[in-house]
Structure formats: C-alpha cells, structure tokens
C-alpha cells in the first residue's frame, strides 16, 4: 500500500522518519523554510515558513497523513492540516508542550508530581514567587525554551536583579530547583485506536545543558511508574504518535520535567537498539498502521556529536558502532550527528563506548 506522509520540518528528525518510512512504502514530503534542509534529499520539499497556512494546505493536498518534527511548528499549522487529512500528534499536544505553564498545569491536573511552580510576568511577581518557592530556583521562559536556553538558575537574592529583563521581559515560570539523582526519559507511542507501547526507560546525561548520552535501562524499577504517567498524558491529549516524557529521579520517585510531542533525541538508540525504532513506530501510528514491538536488543548507548566532526573512519572501523551524519556544517555547540553503540552484553558495551568516545574526542577538542 503506497502512502505519502507530510512532515512539517525537514531537519534530522524528518530525515530519520523518512528513512524509517521507506521500507513501509511510505514516501515523505516536507515543509521547511531552509532550502538545504537535512531531509530534503529524502523527499519532495515545499520551501515555506512553518506558519504559512497556504503551504500547509498544499502539503495536506499532497499527503495521506501528516506530522511534524519539532515544537517550533505553530499549532495553527497542524490544525489547518488536520482539517484536510489526519495530522498527529494533535495540535492540542503541541500547544500544551510549547507553554511550560500549560504543560505543568496539565501534569498537576493528572496528579503527576512536579517541582513547585509560580507564574512570573514582572520583576515584582518574581520577588513574590521567590518568597513562596525559595532559592535556589530556575526561572524559565514559558515558550520557546530548549536545550537549557531561555532559563536562568537563581541561587542568591542578587541573582533576581534584572532577571526578568535578562530573559526578554516575556511570560516566565519559576520552578523550585530539584537536586535530582539523575534524569530519565520515557519514550512511548500510542495509536489512534489507543494501543500503547513504551520503550525501556532511558538514562540521560547532559553536557552544558545539551543531551550527550542516552542509555536504555533494562528492568528499571521505575519503568511501570513512568509508563503510567506517559499513558495518563497521552490519554488526556488523545495523543497519536511518539512522545518523550522527561523526568527527574529522586530516590525511588519521579518528578515530571517536560514532554516533547515528537520523536526525541533520547530515543535515537532505538534505530539499532530496539525491535522497532521510534521513527518507524511514529510513522506507523500517524499512518494508522499497527505498532511494532518496542523490546530492546541487547545493550545499547547513544552519544551525541556536537561542534566538530569526529574521527569518522575510526568510528566506522569499530564493531557495534553506528555513525549517523546529519550533513551539517560544524559550528561550536551544533549537533552534527549521533553514534549508537550496541553489544550483546553490558561489559562489551562499556569497552565499545570507550573506544567510540576516543573517536569523538579527536575533533571536539575535549580533553
Ligand atoms: P528544560 O529545558 O526544562 O528541559 O531544562 C534543561 C535542563 O536544565 C534539564 O535537563 C535539567 O538538567 C535542568 N533543569 C531544568 N529544570 C530544573 C529544575 N527545576 N531543577 C533542577 N534542574 C533543572
């Protein structure tokens, strides 16, 4: 059965969706303002802004179903496409996840634990919020924050000065600072008829606020807890597709940080490391196909590559190492690709990850 999937956004996530869609005989067509977008070689592309509703209508006319690859897509674009063809995840999920206040209020409604929060729309509201929540605390923009951007940690009273102006005098949210043990994410998928599957919980390690390492945890004691929280959110939003739910772990409890209504960097390991990748399951869900098995195959770790290119020849010579090149020009801090390392057992994985990291250090200038 030949189908066409419209994807708003043609970056690396769109590209990995197109690569997963191809064996299912699903062709992709993209909408993206960048002419040299990373996914443009993998399907036709409409070059237009994400908020161009006319282009969105053209995309809908060319596709049987549609999705988007990241949160910067306006919910109105998804809603416009959904008037013509199935478009998932739903615009409501996008609108909720783009606004930290709406998102955290939803978690509260669903009895999912969150840090203490307060709305902050002015410097005087910030002072009042800090009196309530205490220090340290994290001040974040309500919208358009990612990879640690648009936020400021407040540790001392002096840090409050000008904090609202520093973040651009936009609507903000203050969160209590959580001294978490580690950060976990739960990548899950839901179909239109309510089938739900959840990959192994992923342990995530960040460098300078950007994800560096993701490793699925076989038989994590909080797996059931996390799956229950994701399921509650997915049912509330009548969600279809893959979602990543990021948590802070404190001892044996979880606290919600945020959701991403899309395929997620902490799920890239599933391409080689799971029976069905997050990209294939997302495509399947959005196109109305049965979901695939989410079991992990052996031991897996994913490493992000930023800044400069790694020793690619070195990586390609290593057993169990898979290099994904996003075809992007090097720039400090820019995500250029990722490496998935697989092995039959954790001990072999550790050796292979160490060898792969040697190749990443080459060009990053990291000691
Ligand atoms: P976010 O953009 O909200 O995912 O935040 C980026 C990173 O900042 C998270 O992955 C955490 O490492 C850290 N962070 C965010 N919120 C908090 C918080 N309330 N307490 C402690 N650390 C936080």
Automatic annotation (TrEMBL):
Its EC number is 6.3.4.18. Residues 104-287 form the ATP-grasp domain. Keywords: ATP-binding, Ligase, Nucleotide-binding, Purine biosynthesis. Pathway: Purine metabolism; IMP biosynthesis via de novo pathway; 5-amino-1-(5-phospho-D-ribosyl)imidazole-4-carboxylate from 5-amino-1-(5-phospho-D-ribosyl)imidazole (N5-CAIR route): step 1/2. One of its GO terms (biological process) is 'de novo' IMP biosynthetic process. InterPro entries: ATP-grasp, ATP-grasp_carboxylate-amine, ATP_grasp_subdomain_1, PreATP-grasp_dom_sf, PurK, PurK_C, PurT/PurK_preATP-grasp, Rudment_hybrid_motif. Belongs to the PurK/PurT family. This is N5-carboxyaminoimidazole ribonucleotide synthase. It comes from Salinispirillum sp. LH 10-3-1.
